[in-house]
Amino acid sequence: MHRLVSVTLAVMLLAGCTGPGEEAAPEVGTGGTGPITLVIGRDTTSYLRPLLDRWNAAHPGEPVTLLELPEAADEQRAQMVANLQAKSERYDVLALDVIRTAEFADAGWIIPLERAMFPLDRFLPPVVDTAVYQGKLWAVPYSSNAGLLYYRKDLLRREGLKPPKTWAEMREQAKRLSAKYDVGGYAGQYLAYEGLTVNFAEAVQSAGGKEIISSDGAKVTMDVGKAEAGLDFLVRGLREGWIPRESLTFKEEESRLAFQEGRLLFSRNWPHAYGPATQSAMAGKFAVTGLPGIDGPGSSSLGGYNLAISAYSKKQKSALAFIRYFTGLENQRRVLTDGSFPPVWAELYDDPALIKRFPYLPVLKQSILNAQPRPVAANYNQVSLAIASAVSRALTPPFEESSGDIAASLKTELNEIIRAR
Ligand code: GLC
After folding, report:
1. Which of 80, 144, 194 gets mutated to test ligand 1 (max ligand atoms within 8 A of its CB)?
2. Cα(222)–Cα(383) distance, rounded to whole angstroms?
3. CA-CA to 77 of 20 to 30 Å: which in 1, 174, 182, 203?
4. Domain span including residue 82
5. Domain count, the chain
6. For 297-350, what is each residue's pLDDT tens digit?
7. pTM above 0.85, yes or no
8. How far is the C-alpha of 421 from the C-alpha of 78, rounded, in Å?
9. CATH no. for residue 13?
């Protein structure tokens, strides 16, 4: 039955027609077929090659070439924007950070897609929302993301401690155990880039605040008091030393390495650090749980990547077929098992065999469902740069400006950016 459905869809796709009751979407697949290029952030878990080889073996006429961009979100954007502004046809499929949908759609750099072509009702709902802008679908969810707390279960066990649920518990454990075991206490990603915007947003939310900008990007909703509390939590850690100062240079990879090399007791990171840690000196010594907050569980930002088709691609039909393959159930299972990335298919989070292998899956599912999306705004990048630079000022010794002053001036600056759009 499944086979029949997919064959029918494939035929429809090639013929460029739609199923009964569906509206024709002339933009979709208007380009041709042939070799395509997938552009994606650096494959730090080395899982992509075999997945692409499977596609290539089955589609000799439309092989996919992998083009890896730098690891940091901002650098990925810079390279994609340069390519698209030049109207280059070199990139066909773009693995687009969830925060970029609005900007890229607004600029006309990616093409709208027909919802009925993808099993979106089987994906986690907030994940699908990240690919929608002004009522249209612009990309297909490929991997989701939510921040988790990595912790040294061996050391906590030895001390008879449970992983912290509140900032106060984490501070206390980090202070005491880092001195006793000569290990750093806690760290996230504090270099000034998108990762810092994420860490700040999570701190504000975990202090009881809601979002920083309304979901449509039209209004600054940040609660200055909660922003101050979130900043103070981080500043205090840096002042008191249980957040090591070297973390001011951390992006995801630096924190991943610090944790798996045994230099941190606690670390905030995305799930893709899990697989590599199980292959490291920390194997068997660590576990992950949800982020802590000011007086109970904290809350994560919603991350992830969606696959979009470049408006300048000459192989849009092949690109579309590849996206259907790459976001399909079997491939999604491998995205988790081989890549350690959170899949977008809801059912994989309830699969007992997968839960056995990745015990954090239920926590991750909840973290994704409870995560706060970043605003869907065409000028998101400008907003984020302002946030990252203000937060970086707050976190940099000698901490001359107070968290309250920085939160207040950030709000003013964000209001100006929103008003100018
Ligand atoms: C992860 C997330 C992405 C986020 C980035 C920040 O890659 O998936 O959404 O923007 O980290 O560094």
Report:
1. 194
2. 12
3. 203
4. 2-145+303-370
5. 2
6. 999 999 999 999 999 999 999 999 999 999 999 999 999 999 999 999 999 999
7. yes
8. 20
9. 3.40.190.10
